[in-house]
Structure formats: structure tokens, C-alpha cells
Amino acid sequence: xxxxxxxxxxxxxxxxxxxxxxxxxxxxxxxxxxRVREFAANxxxxxxxxxxxxxxxxxxxxxxxxxxxxxxxxGLKTAWRNLQDASPESExxxxxxxxxxxxxxxxxxxxxxxILPNKTKKNVILPGFAFQQQVEVMVSDMRWMQARTDRSLAxxxxxxARSFAxxxxxxxxxxxxxxxxxxxxxxxxxxxxxxxxxxxxxxxxDIHDAVRKHLIVSSSQYSSREKLQPDDLLxxxxxxxxxxxxxxxxxxxxxxxxxHGGKKHYHTMIGAYCRDISLVLRELRIVCKGGAHMCWxxxxxxxxxxxxxxxxxxxxxxxxxGFKQTRFEKLRDRNIKWKNRKHRVPLxxxxxxIEG
Length: 356
Ligand SMILES: C[S@@+](CC[C@H](N)C(=O)[O-])C[C@H]1O[C@@H](n2cnc3c(N)ncnc32)[C@H](O)[C@@H]1O
Hints:
about 350 residues; alpha/beta; two-stranded parallel ribbon; globular; binds S-adenosylmethionine
């Protein structure tokens, strides 16, 4: 949308199915705001006439809502399902409903956070009100965009950044990305709440096949579930430029895990992460013009307190992929407030500029 707002054609690549849908829907800003309001009003009206069925929801959803709130949300969902017609307004109203699921839940949560049903929050917005308010925010965003330009020049590839180059022209001038960090954050799990509400998954166990296995490896859940092997990862041609440094860190992590109850598979997580990022860089080299600029928002990490110089490794992998120069611009220190931290290794976050 930022590219659209300044009239620049853009392409986004995303592998998480519900994130793809959200991105594509946000790009429908050129639609008729009046129709969005009308569609939403019809959903609200129809929701009054449907009999909610809250008993079929998985436990996560029951624990996250009071029954009357869930009944209202279920009514809105059923009404939307009855009226949906794949039009821009239908998709935008789907997004409005999806985006109020956290604000209307009593469970502790925030956008991009795992849902915490054991923690409750005080301020919960009523679904009918939240829905109307969200539709108004979206209508005003659409008008904001429409005041600047009349059509979207953006395209979303629903696919894997490790293998997308052949699906698009090789004419990219600039890349801006906030890739997964190697910090054990599970992007697949992050939207489990929304996916469970819509019936896309029925529980945590479904998430791996539905989402996680299609993503870059950035969590130990992934590396342990797929039983990734250190030798296979280190043998991959993609990590050749950093193999010795990576091996040393993986060996330390393999030893360190034996001293921790969870015995997390960080050693293979880091190896697979580097392999995957290297594959992404190779694809980017294919689609980028010579002299292109890339900006990666990236941080280093220290699972079990073992330092992983992720920014340096990505820079080395980028040069090996054929980019000409790199430079790291630190934005902030991380892990410097020692309280409640699992380790005391100072970390940083910043912009990795990759050019050439
Ligand atoms: C740090 S988030 C950035 C999200 C978004 N750019 C933002 O700033 O809100 C990383 C994103 O990479 C996506 N991702 C993970 N593996 C991917 C892959 N193989 N191909 C494309 N996208 C992937 C995740 O689903 C997640 O949405």
C-alpha cells in the first residue's frame, strides 16, 4: 500500500495462507467504500436472524470468549458466509471481522502475538460495535488511498520466497523486507487463533502441515517436527559460504541443549534458517536488476545464550549470491535490560543494506 500511495509498482511474496489473504484484501482499497458499508450492514442485519452455534468451536475459542460474545461473532461469521460473493466488499468485510477477533476476546493477546487464554484482559470491545468501528476505519483508509491514486499497482505472490523467481519478471529495483528472524518465533502459530475461528485448522497439531512446513525455518518447533539433521543442513550448497562458522555454532548449540530441560532443536533451527535465507537471496539475485538496493530489517539472536551473528551471515550469503556490497545500520540494542531474560548476550536490531 505504501508503494501504491506513491505510484510505484510492487510485488509482495508471502507463504502464510491467511497472511496472503489479508495482504490481498488490503490491496482492494480502490473498491467502492459505499458498497463495503452496505455489505457490512447486510451482514449485521442477517446476523440478527441466524441462530448461533457456538458448541462446534475448539477449546481455544471457547476459552477466549464469553459465550454471548462468541454467539455474536458466530452470527456475524455465518451471516458473512451466507452473503459472501468473492467481491472486493465481501473480502474487505471478511477482513473487518477477522481483525476484531482479538479486540473482542477476553484472552490476553495482541496483533502478531500468540494467543494466551490463561491471561485475561480488562478492556474487551463488544463485537457489534467493534465490527462497525472497524468497517469505518477501513472505509476511511480506502478514501485516504483513493485521494492519492486511483488503482493499485501491487501484486501478491502467494508462494515461497525460496523459489519464486521464475513466476515474475526479473526487473526489481528495490527490495524491502522484514524476514523471519532466527529467534524461535513461530509465524505459523501466530495466526492460529484467527485460523481456528474460521475453521481453517482445528488445533495446534494441524498448524504444521497447514502452514509451518511452507515457511522459512525460524522456530525449533519446525526443526524438531521435521527431524532435520545437522549433517544434511551443513552439507547444503546454500550454506557453503558460512559453513565453518555455522558448524561451530551448531555444535555448541547441540552440546548446550543437553543442559536444558526442553532440549530444544536450536542447532538445526539455525542451520535450516541460514540455508533458507541463502535460498531466498539466490532468488532475489535472479529477480533484481544490477545495481538494485535491498533493505532487510534484521536482528541477531542467541538461543540458549549461544551468539549467532545472523546479520553478518546474511551479508556473507548475499555477497556469495552475487550482490556487491553490504552495510549494517543499527537501530536499537536488544536484551540489555537483564531482568526476566533467559540469557545476557547483548543483541541488536537494524537495517542490513545489500546492494549491487
Ligand atoms: C517478520 S514477518 C514480516 C511481516 C510483514 N512484512 C510485516 O512487517 O508485518 C515475516 C513474514 O515472512 C513470512 N514467511 C515465512 N516464510 C516465508 C517463505 N518461505 N516465503 C514467503 N514468506 C515467508 C511469514 O509468514 C511472515 O509473514
